[in-house]
Amino acid sequence: MVHYKLTYFDTRGIAEAIRVLMKYANIDFEDNRFKVEDWPKIKPTTPTGKVPILEFDGNYLIESAAICRYLARKHGLAGKGDLEEAKVDAIVDQHKDFFSQSFSWLMIKFGREEGDEEEQKKTKFLPAAEIYLPLYQKYLKESGSGFLVKSGLTFADFIVSEFLITLRLNAPEIIEKYPEILQYIDRMKNIPQLKEYYATRKE
Amino acid sequence: MVHYKLTYFDARGLGEAIRLIFKYANIEFEDIRFDAKDWPKIKPTTPAGKVPILEFDGNYLVESAAICRYLARKHGLAGKGDLEEAKVDAIVDQNKDFHFLVAQWIRVKYGMENGNEKEMKEKIVIPQSEIYLPLYQKYLKESGSGFLVKSGLTFADFIVSEFLITLRLNAPEIIEKYPEILQYLGRMKNIPQLKEYYATRKEEFNKKCAYDNRK
């Protein structure tokens, strides 16, 4: 059996989707977490100076979406058939764009960066939210599966839902305008294999 | 035989890597191009309001990397084995980060957005180049194949080399400090299946800026 070691901050961030995927698929892994303030010490000990990093069998992978896709392909979570796999990939890339527009605002809000929180929220996050949240609603409506694509749960759901949870915590008034998205988050949290994990983790 | 139709600006931008895959693999496709100024007219006629878009068999795909990966998988251009496929994906995602940061500066440089070009170059382009260009050199040195990963040419090479060409056109003094990267760009242009295609792309075309269609 492969021994996986995932290294990341002791936060949800961009690695939580990997953790959730591994929990869902019942993959044993070493959940190696460190405190944000310890990063300067830990960084030089990692193969590439970047996290999340997944190490196994003398190999390593970086980039959260690439790691998710690698694991997802082995566990039926990458979409059904090449066309749907490409749709899953497209959703994950669109999410990355949304995330990029939201990143500065969130970093300022969390006190990890200097800047004008209101200005970033207004000029970058809100316009992006008005594009991407309706798009996610559209995917949810069209799939008919309760998840983002037709065949059901994929790694796109783990990635996108984590970010939507973060947005609900930090801009509830925005997310609450989208009822299908609120229901989707609840649906994720009620997936039998994950219910306990979601209930006990800190957000 | 599948009839592919690719729609994108008449520029390299994010669509060119897709065109290169088609050309390299010798797949026929309808190469629909339009001028940036016509985007507002064309946008509502597209299935998702976004380009590039690949249409075929009544289906469509958006997002350039997803389109590249879809075609690459069918033509042995996605990497060899699941581990290398993940490395290819990681390189493409890293390039997306680099591209995102530099693209802001390019839009300002081309007068498409307001901003301080010199300041952005100093504060964003140069520091980010000092992170990513050594990284690409490292991949090229370690692969031993002349391309980004060990098994040879993959869609990561099409995506990354196109961006490096853009960087070279706009900030040559930055790229010219990296000899392996310059050799790599030369190597891409000499790929037998693509040599002629690259040669027909004139500098004027290469410099065209694809409109930012996130809006």
UniProtKB/TrEMBL annotation, chain A:
<dbReference type="Pfam" id="PF14497">
    <property type="entry name" value="GST_C_3"/>
</dbReference>
<dbReference type="InterPro" id="IPR004046">
    <property type="entry name" value="GST_C"/>
</dbReference>
<feature type="domain" description="GST N-terminal">
    <location>
        <begin position="2"/>
        <end position="79"/>
    </location>
</feature>
<dbReference type="InterPro" id="IPR036249">
    <property type="entry name" value="Thioredoxin-like_sf"/>
</dbReference>
<dbReference type="InterPro" id="IPR010987">
    <property type="entry name" value="Glutathione-S-Trfase_C-like"/>
</dbReference>
<comment type="similarity">
    <text>Belongs to the GST superfamily. Sigma family.</text>
</comment>
<dbReference type="GO" id="GO:0004602">
    <property type="term" value="F:glutathione peroxidase activity"/>
</dbReference>
<keyword id="KW-0808">Transferase</keyword>
<dbReference type="InterPro" id="IPR036282">
    <property type="entry name" value="Glutathione-S-Trfase_C_sf"/>
</dbReference>
<dbReference type="Pfam" id="PF02798">
    <property type="entry name" value="GST_N"/>
</dbReference>
<dbReference type="InterPro" id="IPR004045">
    <property type="entry name" value="Glutathione_S-Trfase_N"/>
</dbReference>
<dbReference type="GO" id="GO:0004364">
    <property type="term" value="F:glutathione transferase activity"/>
</dbReference>
<dbReference type="InterPro" id="IPR040079">
    <property type="entry name" value="Glutathione_S-Trfase"/>
</dbReference>
<feature type="domain" description="GST C-terminal">
    <location>
        <begin position="81"/>
        <end position="203"/>
    </location>
</feature>
<dbReference type="GO" id="GO:0006749">
    <property type="term" value="P:glutathione metabolic process"/>
</dbReference>
<protein>
    <recommendedName>
        <fullName>glutathione transferase</fullName>
        <ecNumber>2.5.1.18</ecNumber>
    </recommendedName>
</protein>
<dbReference type="InterPro" id="IPR050213">
    <property type="entry name" value="GST_superfamily"/>
</dbReference>
<dbReference type="GO" id="GO:0005737">
    <property type="term" value="C:cytoplasm"/>
</dbReference>
From TrEMBL, chain B:
<dbReference type="InterPro" id="IPR004046">
    <property type="entry name" value="GST_C"/>
</dbReference>
<feature type="domain" description="GST C-terminal">
    <location>
        <begin position="81"/>
        <end position="210"/>
    </location>
</feature>
<dbReference type="GO" id="GO:0004364">
    <property type="term" value="F:glutathione transferase activity"/>
</dbReference>
<dbReference type="Pfam" id="PF02798">
    <property type="entry name" value="GST_N"/>
</dbReference>
<dbReference type="InterPro" id="IPR036282">
    <property type="entry name" value="Glutathione-S-Trfase_C_sf"/>
</dbReference>
<comment type="similarity">
    <text>Belongs to the GST superfamily. Sigma family.</text>
</comment>
<dbReference type="GO" id="GO:0005737">
    <property type="term" value="C:cytoplasm"/>
</dbReference>
<dbReference type="InterPro" id="IPR004045">
    <property type="entry name" value="Glutathione_S-Trfase_N"/>
</dbReference>
<dbReference type="InterPro" id="IPR050213">
    <property type="entry name" value="GST_superfamily"/>
</dbReference>
<dbReference type="GO" id="GO:0006749">
    <property type="term" value="P:glutathione metabolic process"/>
</dbReference>
<feature type="domain" description="GST N-terminal">
    <location>
        <begin position="2"/>
        <end position="79"/>
    </location>
</feature>
<dbReference type="InterPro" id="IPR036249">
    <property type="entry name" value="Thioredoxin-like_sf"/>
</dbReference>
<dbReference type="InterPro" id="IPR040079">
    <property type="entry name" value="Glutathione_S-Trfase"/>
</dbReference>
<keyword id="KW-0808">Transferase</keyword>
<dbReference type="InterPro" id="IPR010987">
    <property type="entry name" value="Glutathione-S-Trfase_C-like"/>
</dbReference>
<dbReference type="Pfam" id="PF14497">
    <property type="entry name" value="GST_C_3"/>
</dbReference>
<protein>
    <recommendedName>
        <fullName>glutathione transferase</fullName>
        <ecNumber>2.5.1.18</ecNumber>
    </recommendedName>
</protein>
<dbReference type="GO" id="GO:0004602">
    <property type="term" value="F:glutathione peroxidase activity"/>
</dbReference>
